[in-house]
Structure formats: structure tokens, C-alpha cells
Amino acid sequence: MSDSSPDAAFASLPLAPELLDNLASLGFAAMTPIQAESLPPILAGRDVIARAKTGSGKTAAFGLGLLSRLALSSFAVQGLVLCPTRELADQVAGELRRLARTLPNVKVLTLCGGAPFGPQLASLAHGAHIVVGTPGRIEEHLRKGSLTLDGLATLVLDEADRMLDMGFQASLEAIVDETPASRQTLLFSATFSDAVRPVAAALMRDPVTVEVAETHDAGSIHERVYRVADGDEARLEALCRLLLHFRPGSSVVFCNTKRETDEVAQALGAEGFSALALHGDLEQADRDRLLVLFANRSASILVATDVAARGLDIAELDAVFNYQIARELEVHVHRVGRTGRAGSAGIACTLVGEGEEYRLERLADFLGEPLEEAPLPPRSVLSREPLVPPMATLQLGSGKKQKVRPGDILGALTGEAGLAGDQVGKIKVLANSAFVAVRREVADEALARLLNGRIKGRSVRARRVGR
């Protein structure tokens, strides 16, 4: 009988030895709570609906279930994972490949909107065991006959609530209609909203419901409430005072509307802060570039809506600022839980206006305890200079299709008495472009080396992006 306690080892599960060996080599020891509760029924073939957020270990939970059901001799699509955004699909596909690396010839294919259709057709022609994609593009491939799901064993809906928020219900229904009734269905959602429950009831057969209480380590996250006067100017000044007082190297400011994210990001920029606005109206290329800048530490503040930030696994986030209390109280918990991960310290600050007392009372009732209130830092902190991000990001006009690898870019920057290795940060190579982070003080030198040098025997186009 499986031990489903949160500290149980993966070895207690009926997993193939190759998967267990790989988990050990990857440093997976004890299961997270969501893994311990969901993996036993998943491996038993049950439909499962689980409440889990990004960073909870949910990808390994459904990923191990997918891999355990594969017939490796067949290249028919046996697993399908639907995600709301391309970046989440890329993250999921990457994690599945890591989990599968000791299994022979497992092919994981990503099919997302915003990417050219032709190369996807070529990849599908070679077959795939698991497809990870966005609902719109998957539906398009099904409609054109380039993808068939007759042999599907497992369907996963990841971030189901967000897919419904984004209007994908019709696409989800069309996709499900193309799958066998005998499939296993796994639904993972950050919330069990009124929209999710009827969808789950329609898609699933006698599902096991897994709901792990979300808690935060009080020792790692210091959460405070700050009272502000009514009005946009007072709220923005309060945010600036907190940013200048705490000086987080990486933080997210959560707003409740798209319009507000733009306004707050622009206002912070006018005050000298390095801030970027993330919301659902961005083109995919702009979104990709923005997220690279933030991940590279070339921008220190991300101003985001909850929907746009969902699915982003942002590591080492120093602080979260709630410009207002979230409309849904569960969402407040998800916001705060983005900081203080893996035992590191984190700060969560919530601004509450004079007319928002009722929201604060509802939040305290939901959490079961009042939140600590603190006075705003003195206005004198406004004389301080905003934090300057330590890195700058350069974009190259060549990528994977030009056979460019991260090592090629690193070599171009550090070879022949160039930059020191510790002056180069993260390198991300996309299909036709690449991004590299360098220490801000050597950005001009790094750009000159790229423009005057050669990669793979060819000159490259390069430019600095962001501030």
C-alpha cells in the first residue's frame, strides 16, 4: 500500500526503476504534498481533480503519471497536456523531458500558437508520445487532420481555471470530443471556481479530488498591511516608499486590472524604477522579451495582473506588493506564496485604502487571523535613488534554427581576453533569436564584441533591450 504522507519517498510508489533512478539523480527526495496526495490515484488510473499552484510540484505529479502509461514502441500521441500559455507549455515540456531522460526515445512535442505552423506539421509527421500545447493551436491541428488523438491514454488540463478565464472552454470541448472515452483525465487548477466544477463534471469519471491546504512558512514570508489614503497619487506614493525602503532586487506588483498595470508601470518608470507591465494584451514576442528581462535581473519590478502572472514559475522573488487586495481571497494567498520559496526570506506588502476596510475584514476571516499592520516608511525615503538592476540584456538575431547554442554565445563574449565568466548571466536561445544577460557595467563592451565578432563563422545582429 502506498504511503501518501507528504514526506513519503518516491520509492514507495509503483514506478519503473528507470524513473526512480532518474528522480534520485535529479535530487527528488520526499514528495511534495500535492505529489503525495495525487500520485497514488493517478498511477492507479483514476481521474483526478487537484488544486495546485505553480511551484507546488504538480508537473512532476501528472508527468510521472503520463510517463508510466506510455507504450514506448508506439509513436502515436498517448499523452496530451493543455496549458493556457506558451511559456507554461514550454516549462511543462522541459520538465517532462527531464523526467523522461532515462526512458528510451521518449518524444515530447510542443504545439502552441504564436509559433509557425509548418515546422509543427513536420514534427508531427515524425510522431510523438506526448504533446504539450495551447488549446487554440491543438484544436487547429485537429481540425486540419495533422493531429489525431485516437490512441490517447491521458489528458491533462493544467491551470484549468486560467484556460476558462481566457475563453478556451469551446476549444477544450472540441478537443475532448476527439479523444477516446476510455482516457484518463487529470485536471489541475489553482482554484476550484464555479467555472471549473461543471467542466470537471462533464469531462471526468468518478474523479478523486485532491486539495492540499496552502500554507506559508511564517518564518520565510513577512506579510504586512499598510494603510493608504484614497486616491491614485497616495497609493502610488505608498508603493514607491515601500520599494525604496525594502529595495527588493526582484519583485512583483499585483494589480486587479490591465489598465492599472500599464498606469502603475509607467508611473514607476517616470520615478526612475525599472518596471515592466505584464498583462493579457501583450503580443507573444513582447511577452517573451519582457519575461526574459525580468528573469535575467535586467528589470527589477514586474507589474502584473493575476491572470497574466499565472503559470510563471518565478524563482527567488524577494517581494510581492498587492496594489489592492485581490478580488478573490484565494488569489491573495497565491500572490503571497510567490515569495519566500525554498526557505528563502520574502516580503509581502498589501495596500489598503480608506474605503477597503471590508475587504481587509473578509481577508482576515478567510485566513483565520488578522494580518499584521505596519506604518508606511517615512516620506524621507523618497529622496533615495531607485535600485538599478545589476544586469543588462542583449538580443541576438540568431537562434536554434541557425544552430546557435548557449556555449557559442558564452564563447563569443569571453574568448580572446573578453569578459570574465562571472560577468555573463543567463542565456536563453529561442528559434530565431537569443538573449544573454551581462553585468550592466560591461554591456557596451559585450555588445561591441558580439557585433564585431562571429558565431558559427557568421556575423550576428545584436542589440540591447530594456533600459
Topology diagram in text:
Blueprint: H1 17-25, H2 33-43, E1 48-51, H3 58-68, E2 79-82, H4 86-99, E3 108-111, H5 117-125, E4 130-133, H6 135-144, E5 154-158, H7 160-165, H8 169-176, E6 184-189, H9 196-203, E7 208-211, E8 221-227, H10 232-246, E9 251-255, H11 258-270, E10 275-278, H12 284-295, E11 301-305, H13 306-309, E12 319-322, H14 329-336, E13 346-352, H15 357-367, E14 391-396, H16 406-414, E15 424-429, E16 434-439, H17 443-452, E17 462-465
Parallel strand pairs: 1-6, 1-7, 2-4, 2-5, 3-4, 5-6, 8-13, 9-11, 9-12, 10-11, 12-13
Antiparallel strand pairs: 14-16, 14-17, 15-16
CATH superfamily of the largest domain: P-loop containing nucleotide triphosphate hydrolases
What is the CA-CA span between the terminal residues?
57 Å
CATH architecture of the largest domain: 3-Layer(aba) Sandwich
Number of strands: 17
The unreliable regions are 1-7
CATH class of the largest domain: Alpha Beta
- Strand adjacency order, main sheet: 3-4-2-5-6-1-7
Q: Looking at CATH, which topology of the largest domain would you report? A: Rossmann fold
Going by helix content, strand content and strand pairing, the class is alpha/beta
> Over the alpha carbons, how many angstroms does the gyration radius reach?
23 Å
Task: Tally the structural domains.
Answer: 3
Binned strand content? 15-25%
User: Helix fraction?
Assistant: 25-40%
* Main sheet summary: 7 strands, parallel
**Counting H and I runs of at least 4 residues, what is the number of helices?**
17
Overall mean confidence score, pLDDT: 88
Shape, principal axes of CA atoms: globular
